[in-house]
Design a protein that fits this description.
Shape: globular
Largest sheet: none
Order of helices and strands: HHHHHHH
Distance between the termini: 48 Å
Structural class: mainly alpha
Number of strands: 0
Radius of gyration: 17 Å
Strand content: under 5%
Length: 177
C-alpha cells in the first residue's frame, strides 16, 4: 500500500507543478513572450525561442493532464522525467557557460537559473522516475488516498516556492558574516 501512496503523491506533486508552470506561461501572449525572451541568453535557437517556449508550455500541460488519470499516469510521469532532465541539462549548460538566464519556470520572473534550480528539477525528476519504478498497487482508501494527495500537494508548494525558499536559505546563511 505504501507504494500506491507514493505513486499518488508523485502524481499530485507532478501534476500541480506542471499545471502551475504551464498556466503561468500560457496566461497570455505577454507571459509566453516574456518566457521566450528569458531563454535568449541560452544562445540561438534554429526555430526561434517563441516556438520553443510554446512547446515547453504544451509539454507541461500534457504532463499535468496525463498524471491525472490512472490509465495515463505512468506515461505522464515518464514524460515529466524526460522534460525535467532536459531542463536540468539546459540549466547546467547555462551555468557552465556563465549565462544569466532568468527563471520564468512558473511564468513570473524569478532568480537567475543556477544550482538551486538544478537541484529542484533533479529532485522532481527523481521523484517522478521513482514512482515509475513502483509496481501498481491496490486501490487506496479515502483516508490513505487523501493523505498521499496532501503530501504531494505540500511538496508541490515547496517546489513552486523554491526560488523564495532558496533565497531565504542564502540570506540566512550569509546573515552572520
Amino acid at each position: 500500500m505504501i507504494g500506491a501512496q507514493f505513486v499518488l503523491a508523485a502524481r499530485v506533486l507532478t501534476g500541480l507543478v506542471f499545471a502551475v508552470a504551464a498556466v503561468g506561461k500560457l496566461a497570455g501572449r505577454v507571459r509566453l513572450a516574456e518566457f521566450a525572451a528569458s531563454l535568449e541568453p541560452l544562445g540561438r535557437s534554429p526555430v526561434g525561442w517563441l516556438p520553443v517556449a510554446a512547446a515547453t508550455a504544451v509539454a507541461e500541460l500534457a504532463v499535468a493532464g496525463l498524471v491525472v488519470f490512472p490509465a495515463t499516469a505512468r506515461l505522464g510521469l515518464g514524460l515529466a522525467t524526460a522534460v525535467l532532465l532536459v531542463f536540468c541539462a539546459a540549466i547546467a549548460r547555462s551555468v557552465q557557460l556563465g549565462r544569466r538566464v532568468t527563471c520564468r519556470c512558473f511564468g513570473r520572473a524569478g532568480a537567475v537559473l543556477g544550482r538551486a534550480h538544478l537541484v529542484r528539477n533533479a529532485l522532481l525528476a527523481a521523484w517522478a522516475a521513482a514512482a515509475l519504478a513502483v509496481p501498481p498497487g491496490p486501490a487506496l482508501g479515502l483516508d490513505t488516498g487523501a493523505a498521499a494527495a496532501l503530501v504531494g500537494a505540500c511538496a508541490a508548494v515547496v517546489a513552486i516556492s523554491w526560488d523564495s525558499l532558496a533565497g531565504l536559505v542564502r540570506t540566512t546563511g550569509t546573515a552572520g558574516r
